[in-house]
Specification:
The structure is a homotetramer of 457-residue chains.
Chain A (H helix, E strand, L loop, with lengths): L3 H8 L2 H13 L8 H13 L3 E4 L8 E7 L3 E7 L28 H22 L3 E8 L7 H7 L8 E8 L3 E2 L2 E3 L1 E10 L14 H15 L8 E9 L9 E10 L2 H22 L2 E10 L2 E2 L2 H10 L10 H12 L3 H4 L11 E2 L5 E3 L5 H5 L4 E7 L10 H6 L3 H22 L2 H15 L20
Parallel strand pairs in A: 3-4, 3-5, 5-15, 6-13, 7-14
Antiparallel strand pairs in A: 1-2, 2-4, 7-12, 8-10, 8-11, 9-10
Helix pairs in contact in A: 1-4, 1-13, 2-4, 3-4, 4-13, 6-7, 8-13
């Protein structure tokens, strides 16, 4: 089959797409504040003929855009939020463009635009082939705080789909099978009674409560299932030593591989907090921040993606890009241990019989519990690159990132083309999905009463 | 006034009294097991013409014996229980008579007999003077576990009295004003769920619960009133590392200077336990051991005791006794710091304007919250002696202890003689008592449902 | 003896003195930043004929000013630093003049000027009487962080004196005998290794180290002498739950009644930190903040102060001042429990046979270990006033505070007059001082290598 | 190939073998005390013509016995120690033969004799075939404390071998590929200073040290590699609440999947102990109990074992045995959840592409790091049986266990026959072994200075 028209459709918009990605690099916006990015994406989607809804689901920086009609309905998951504190120039040493400012340290500017590229390619394919089928582009806010897609799902998104694609920038061209942790995020506030610390018997220390809750949580570690994790930091922990703190708080993540494990472990953690409140004569209040499902792969979609991957045009890097990737690699601690064979990955990794457990979380997991959904990766960083670092911010603003982005968009559109042409394949993806779920159904981890965060800009 | 008849009455029974004390030294019996001691005391009291009740208040090793009629009714508080693990011969180095066996390390053999001596002296005085008045001798089991007198009080003892005397062996001839800590004693049992420790997520660790309760208790220390104390040891703390312990327990003392402080602090400690149970998914059960009131002095009785003290015949020590005391002093750590001026104390200490807080507890405190009651001390150990040591056991079995014992008995009888002769003095003692209580009333710290321990012999 | 000339000398400058105090009320400056206060004080001292040194001992906001010659050399301890966050208008409800700004919540504007008033009175006395004797006025920065006088002492201050006076504003006219806690203040910084929290085995948590140090410190509480205290707050305690914190720190106060106790306890606390570093594979660095000696009274000086107190003119409050004091009293929690008999204290409290332990600290304690030095208090707040509250800031800016201030200055000058006239009295004060010290000698608690903080304005 | 002679050789000794196993069931001996078992085994080995060394390697209850000459030299690992507290009669409810006494709760009586059976079969095979080759039978003491084989290895055992077989009783006929945890075992003793708990500032609590070490260890859990485990119980934890404990100790297991992980984690745990000693002013002493390597499978040997398994004669159970297995199954908690399809397992489980991580440990791991060595399992318990339970003790004393034992012996001998006939197969096993080791070499985890435990009987 010839899919060149898909590739051509994307590459013809290469400059426009790159411009948007670079504007987002220059204007990084943190979770729930992606006002400009959202506007630029909507503008482009409209230009490309999509029916665009800006701010659906009660979320001002979300997008729902569609083109086409009939089944299969294939979704695309865009993200465009930046990370606090990761501002970086195009220098190959740590050099914030705005000291302390946010930056695209996870390359979500590329992620948003790769998805847009895929949408362009899929529309071109449906248009040319005349096949029935719909493209639904979701602009998903706030992946970095892991709650954007759960809020969207709570308000009705995604369940309309037959299947979905996501892409993320990476140091490798790769397809990974397996799971990643889901999580709950909550802040536990304790309220005690202040007193001069030299007469501390008159006080009830909220800080003691936080410390004892944490001690309890550390004892709990022995009694968690092996892939579960708890981590915390203090949010408020006393003002001056001579004052018994009447307020203190701690921010927790609870991670595990299944929602039921997260729910159960979270309840036990809440009991640690309740126990600490009892021990100290203080009161506890929980500020639930949200939660997300574990991520899952879909072997059927993955096989299709692997099949079409060879069609994705190889990236051609300039001398300058290669030199920059090389310089960035040299700044990575891993470089000391293992000098890489090439500065940017050019191969392709897919191990169909290896099923990995990865510790990290993404709210793509929520979508992956609603419809069959696979995330793919292309190299858009130096080969030793790691997300959430200044080096990755740097690559998100130059040709290394942009080339990976375009290849990612093309790849998703090529894989989608297979599904638009083969209803059985969609059925197989659903069978695989149901088998993997093993009876589990999606229940949004964020309760109804938690309001959707609004832009603070 | 001439009280020589009192002194003579006691000294004429010196040999009999010493024999009983030495039999108790040779046959040490621990708390609630004082079967022989109780029998010997009853036998002697009967011989001396007292009306004896053996085993009153549901306590087989308690005694209530009386002589005389009418007011004032003056009580005497005898004790005769030994301490586990303090067996000792008459050697001046640590040398248990029975390895691991109990011993009179607090000199309660002397305490019981000193009280008997006082009873003899008081009876002789009432007999000779023809004054109205009653002597009530209480044999009080189990002082060393601090609950004997509270059980007796719960069952009705002591409230019949006008006032009471107690004596305790000491390194000094002294009268102390002030307070000592009261306490609660309880064992906290936790019940969890066992599991192989390599799959500890299936288990709920009772040992974790104890450790977290203790951590909570250590944080609580900052928030206790300054004279409060908490201490604990583990009673059960796991069997083998590869088994999650489903049972664990910890034994706590809570001390403070007033019952209300103890009650409040104990409740906060219970909350630490409840909190730990919550944190660990275990269950807590409390085995309440009992409690006692803080000790108190009575300035009016103390002044009378100080007034009559010069009449108490001085002790005359043999060369051998002085040499032994000297040898024992040399085994005390304090000897390194401050060489004492004499091997056994011969002076008298009473500072009527100094009010001391002492950390130790005694169930005499319960009586001291029911009637005016003062404890006096005479030297019955080497001058650097400390209770609950093998050196003190040693002195409890020779002339050093016996001489102090007889002097203690005489002293109490002399002081009682003043009260038998002066009704106003009794009233003054009550005024002082009520002022010190400041409205507090006695509520037995051991709830009705706790059964009285029975002899395990 | 007639001391009216002393009182007249101070009262004739009443308006000038009040103006300076009010300027400092309007321009509160925090510890080590008392640039304006220092300048105004120097200006006034020069005007009154004192030989003034501005910024001695390497401390830009310190003052040393003297008048007269020969012995006795009597020192006066001025302070003029404000407290962060206690800004307040003249309203009788919490109403910051500058939100979040500093304020005279401990009334040090009054303290500085009361001392100046005393200096004027003492000079007038020496001048009129022609007696030998010297007045040394010390402007002492940074009492609120408890290190100003220790730095001054380290650099040679105070040891030139025969004795010294200090005054502090209070809710009562009072002379207190006894001791207050000295302290050490230090920040413990831990440095670990960051990692993604889901792969926390690659990290070493500095936050764990702080928590374990604190757990150790809470266990240490059982093993401290009864009047010792430890308190802490976190300074840095993690950023986001998914990052193992590589930096964390905790700020500790260690208090006790003697330097040797503080030094010993501080070393044990340092060992808790070292232990926590070992346990967590992190590194600890101590930022020692300084320390101060416990405060002490001097019974000889106190008796003299009590003797002259009746000469101090009574304060005459306006209707407005009484109404304000009444309104402020009503805002104090204590008001619910015990309605005061008068809005501002007019009596005088001195109990020559009561020796109190107070929990609070002051760097006046350092001076009190170098020369005999007594602190006196006059009412300069509403009768239920408490230092370090907005109510006290309020009083520091009106007639209530100013009248207390002038009375304080007069009182010190009157007491000094007695010592200028009686060499034996000075000797007695030294005998009392030496007896109280019991062989202890002053060793500045701040090591040589700690630099003196400089103004940050 | 016909291996019937091997099967016949074993089955002809069935009664003798069963008798020995039952004698060991009747006379259970705990770790290092296997005096009778060792004697009975030696007697039998001699009878069967083996050259027997009793008590080699300085271990009185160890055995080294051999038959044959030349390569391949194939080792057999016998164990025969019982477990404390697991005494049981042939009743199908918990019913200790000797209350509190030891029992064959891990079926090591069967294990020893199954190995003897294999030795008989292997000798018969070599004898009949005339092939070169040697059988080395190792009697290995003290598997239950996980140190017997490490001591043997330290003293030179096992390295002479070409490969080795082990068998263990199980609820299933199975071959498992994968790994199990290795471990270190150590008791940490702390020494402090006693004091009356009401004056605890004079004491240094060894119990505090243990608790703080444990708190540190619980914080460490977050920072361990995922398959690592730490567990502990207290050995000594205080006597009475009113005494500051000067002695306390805790017994730790540190488990992980590789020796380097164990060594590293153990050092970090030691640092937790050192840190706790620092925090509490106590001293720590480590009583190292020993350690063992993780267990490993060998795929080449496993494949051979799977190949010959069908030749092993099926067990024929009596009605009585089946009824007993059924009754025992009904006592297992799992029975409530999933009723088994048969009372005793008759199938065979081998999943050549599944590699499992098991939490449990065995000192067979030490041998498995010296030579290629595979452990096989046959059903010798009820199908829901679990080792270290009274149900397994029961089966170890009747036909269920004995039949499994004989089948295990035959199986090992059959597999050995393949290796005696195929030198290349031995080479392949070594290649697999070296690949699995990935460069790791065996270093005995028990230091030279730890003495070999001697029988305490």
């Amino acid at each position: 089959m010839d899919y060149q028209h898909i590739i051509d459709a994307v590459l013809s918009e290469k400059d426009v797409l790159s411009d948007i990605a670079l504007k987002m690099y220059e204007n990084p916006e943190t979770a729930y504040n992606e006002v400009k990015a959202c506007a630029w994406m909507c503008e482009a989607l409209e230009k490309y003929g999509f029916k665009v809804e800006k701010g659906p689901y009660g979320m001002p920086t979300a997008i729902r855009a569609e083109w086409g009609s009939g089944h299969p309905i294939i979704g695309l998951l865009a993200e465009y939020d930046a990370l606090p504190g990761l501002s970086q120039t195009q220098n190959t040493f740590k050099d914030p463009a705005v000291p302390g400012g946010p930056g695209q340290g996870c390359g979500h500017n590329l992620l948003g635009v790769a998805t847009l590229a895929a949408a362009i390619g899929m529309k071109a394919d449906l248009e040319k082939s005349g096949l029935p089928g719909t493209v639904v582009f979701y602009g998903c806010p706030a992946e970095e705080v892991l709650t954007g897609k759960a809020f969207m799902a709570r308000e009705g998104a995604f369940k309309e789909l037959d299947l979905a694609f996501a892409w993320h920038g990476s140091s490798k061209n790769a397809l990974g099978l397996g799971m990643g942790g889901g999580l709950n995020s909550a802040i536990f506030h304790f309220k005690g009674k202040t007193a001069h610390a030299s007469a501390a018997w008159n006080g009830r220390s909220a800080l003691d409560a936080v410390e004892l809750m944490n001690t309890g949580a550390n004892y709990l570690r022995e009694h968690m299932t092996p892939n579960s994790r708890i981590h915390y930091v203090y949010k408020e922990a006393g003002v001056a030593p001579n004052i018994v703190p009447d307020r203190a708080s701690v921010w927790y993540y609870v991670r595990s591989l299944h929602r039921w494990e997260i729910d159960e472990l979270y309840q036990r953690l809440v009991d640690c907090g309740r126990g600490a409140a009892l021990m100290t004569g203080t009161e506890m209040e929980i500020e639930f921040q949200g939660g997300c499902y574990n991520t899952m792969s879909n072997k059927v979609i993955a096989d299709v993606c692997a099949e079409v991957y060879p069609m994705v045009p190889a990236a051609e890097y300039t001398e300058e890009e290669l030199a920059m990737a090389d310089a960035l690699n040299k700044t990575m601690p891993e470089y000391q241990v293992k000098k890489p064979e090439e500065p940017i990955h050019t191969g392709f990794i897919y191990k169909p019989d290896q099923y990995n457990i990865s510790p990290g979380s993404s709210d793509v997991g929520d979508v992956q519990h609603i419809v069959p959904c696979m995330m793919v990766n292309t190299a858009s960083q130096n080969i030793l690159g790691v997300n959430h670092t200044w080096q990755t911010t740097c690559c998100a603003g130059n040709g290394i990132g942009l080339k990976g982005m375009l290849r990612g968009g093309i790849w998703m559109a090529l894989a989608a083309a297979k599904f638009y042409r083969d209803e059985e394949l969609v059925k197989s993806a659903w069978e695989c999905f149901k088998k993997d779920l093993d009876g589990e159904t999606y229940q949004c981890p964020i309760p109804k009463e938690i309001p959707i965060p609004q832009p603070q800009v």
